[in-house]
Amino acid sequence: MQRPEPIAERHDVRGDAPVPDDILLGGRPVVLRGLVRDWPMVRAAQAGANAAVAYLSGVVRPGAPPAAVTVGPPEIDGRFFYDDAMRGFNFRREQVPLDVVLRTLLNYAQTDAPPAIYVASTTIDTWLPGFNAANAVDLGSRAPLASIWIGNRTRIAAHQDLPDNLACVAAGRRRVTLFPPEQLANLYIGPLDLTPAGQPISLVDFAAPDLARFPKFAEAMRHAQGAELEPGDAVFIPSLWWHHMEGLEPFNVLVNYWWRQSPAWMDTPMNALMLALMSIRDLPDGERAHWREIFRHYVFDADDATAGHIPEHARRVLAPLDETLARDLRAKLLQRLNR
């Protein structure tokens, strides 16, 4: 099967200057080699896992609440996934103090077959105050959500996120495999409403793809892009690009910055998809075709002419939305859904 093409790389961007907009608005993945190599966290990690854990332990907030930890038995080989019947999952979640998690990862670092341990998407300001000030990325006027991921050798199934994403390797190494959004049909995505971590995932095991069961995955791989990231490297993952992430060392830390190019008051399109599944997908063919035309007219091909025949003051939701109109519309939708 074809190997991923290398993700485009830049070597001229450093963390002491803003990340250029031609990268962040370009809509294409880019690896930024050495972007955060001067972070104190990265310098500690380059001295080894013990130094990296000591650095993180030194900035854990005293009295912080326990962190959500995902734990799987050694036999899952780091792959957090469904159970065999796809009625549940092959892991459990626990609430554990973050400093205990860090010590546990160190204790298992020399073990041949440790349990899979992952602290996923933990808000940095809640658990590690001061980390962002000392380990910063300049994203201009954007106000991203910064989160940290800590674990051992784990595999996170291909999924997509709504926000744009700058992922920075702070310790260990990562292998990232990316697919453009249009590869949806070739990735064999699982349930939308029963997911390991909130996002639908590919059912393909990237370590051993079953092409008899998932034959179109070979076509997805013809469009794949990949890279291995060292401490200090970063990758920009545009909105809705599918990404499969692997931690390659006994101790790995990833710092994510997420932001949207739309106002914070805009709802997630996933809610619209769920409502469409409930109200449109199973209509008779003719009615569904009519709704396809309605969505094309009002949503996908909307322009100034769509409501140009209506007096401006009367356009309401057909006018450009703002926070007030969105709040009113959400209230009306909730009334209808709760009837």
Automatic annotation (TrEMBL):
Gene3D superfamilies: Jelly Rolls. It comes from the Bacteria. InterPro entries: Cupin_8, JmjC_dom, RmlC-like_jellyroll. Residues 117-274 form the JmjC domain. This is JmjC domain-containing protein.
